[in-house]
Amino acid sequence: MSSTNAIPTEMDMMKSDFLPLHGTDYIELYVGNAKQAAHFYKTAFGFQSLAYAGPETGMKDRVSYVLVQNKMRLVLTTPLRSNHPIAEHHKKHGDGVKVLALMVEDAYDAYAQTMQRGAKSYLEPTTLKDESGEVRLSGICTYGEVAHVFVERKNYQGVFMPGYREWKSDYNPTPVGLEYVDHCVGNVGWDQMNPWVSFYENVMGFRNILSFDDKDISTEYSALMSKVMSSGNGYVKFPINEPAEGKKKSQVEEYLDFYEGEGVQHIAVATKDIITTVKAMMARGVEFLQVPSSYYDDLLDRVGPIEEDLAPLRELGILVDRDDEGYLLQLFTKPVEDRPTMFYEIIQRKGAKSFGKGNFKALFEAIEREQENRGNL
Ligand code: FE2
């Protein structure tokens, strides 16, 4: 038996995990025009048509398109009338993430466990059935207007969930190699990072695995602070950012201004071959943040030997960072909507479990140049 003051091992954490999460089930975005957004995610990001719900399937008030690429599912939802709560959400925030859905073994238990620890309810436990079986759902609120929906689909063989039909399309651009959701980052208000860190610790059983203060994440002008929260088994990671005081406006503050509140800043998606993935996305019109080419002049001195050739990394602007366990390659898109709000990260991990701290300075200077162009710095 271990002594009471021993540091818990990973095994202890898993044994005491009251909310075992199997990963991200889907991410739902509320958007202004789901039909066109679905076309964008198919064309530019290589997602495949999976399922559809709307008036034709009995859902009279909105439409949802479900897209898939390997293990990642996106749901794009638009209301059909102005007097719908989703229309209010879209009027305020523009396009953005509403639901970060998490795969669980038991959606009713996930709800009971989190509610008894102080969660605010988003969706009471409910069972949806059709001829393909049943999906059990429940949900709790997190920062801003974002929700976590717990999805239990072990007794379901259908294409997505009851209420949806298979979406077959004649337009099927090839995938670009996006594999699964690596992490999802939330932007919260001034002094709100620690309260949300406590929420993930106390209500969801997460632990804080990394912290960055404004000394780590600071350029000459703008700053932010960040803490990375991980589920007990490490399958789900939610870094939480808050703005910090700098000479000029923090990128998190710009987000909060334009999203008109807290919300998801970026979704990081894993690939096994970032050079091929990014090349394909660029050819299909996705815009990425670019660092100056001087970033590559002493890159290998900074990160040590890597397996990739430097030339394609330099050509595509892919960033590299190393930690004790290995290295990672990453690149960030520009915001994918007109407001300077949500964007994507493409990440390939080669042993590293961290988040690219060595790239923060070059990256944030690139973001500041974009902010400057928008007149928001
Ligand atoms: Fe990230």
Q: Level of helix content?
A: 10-25%
Ranges with pLDDT <50 over ≥5 residues?
Answer: none
Mean pLDDT: 93
Q: Determine and state the CATH class of the largest domain.
A: Alpha Beta
Distance between the termini: 56 Å
CATH topology (fold) name of the largest domain? 2,3-Dihydroxybiphenyl 1,2-Dioxygenase, domain 1
What string, H for helix and E for strand, traces the elements in order? Answer: HEHEEEHEHEEEEEHEEEHEHHHEEEH
Q: Judging from the principal axes of the Cα atoms, what is the shape?
A: globular
Ions and ligands: fe (ii) ion
Class per helix and strand makeup: alpha+beta
What portion of the residues fall into strands of 2 or more residues?
25-35%
**Architecture of the largest domain, according to CATH?**
Roll
Spatial strand sequence of the major β-sheet: 6-7-8-5-1-4-3-2-9
Description:
This protein has two domains: 13-166, 2,3-Dihydroxybiphenyl 1,2-Dioxygenase, domain 1 (Roll), CATH 3.10.180; 178-374, 2,3-Dihydroxybiphenyl 1,2-Dioxygenase, domain 1, CATH 3.10.180.10. By secondary structure, the chain is an alpha+beta fold. Strand 3 and strand 4 (72-79) form a beta hairpin. The strands form two sheets. The protein has a nine-stranded mixed beta sheet. The chain has an eight-stranded mixed beta sheet with strand order 11-12-13-10-14-17-16-15. The chain has helices at 10-15, 34-43, 85-93, 107-115, 193-202, 251-259, 274-283, 299-303, 310-316, 360-374; strands at 21-30, 48-53, 62-69, 72-79, 96-104, 121-130, 133-141, 147-152, 165-166, 178-187, 207-212, 223-230, 237-244, 263-271, 319-323, 326-332, 343-350. The longest helix is centred in the C-terminal third of the chain and has 15 residues, at 360-374. Residues 183, 185, 266, 268, 345, 355 line the site of fe (ii) ion.
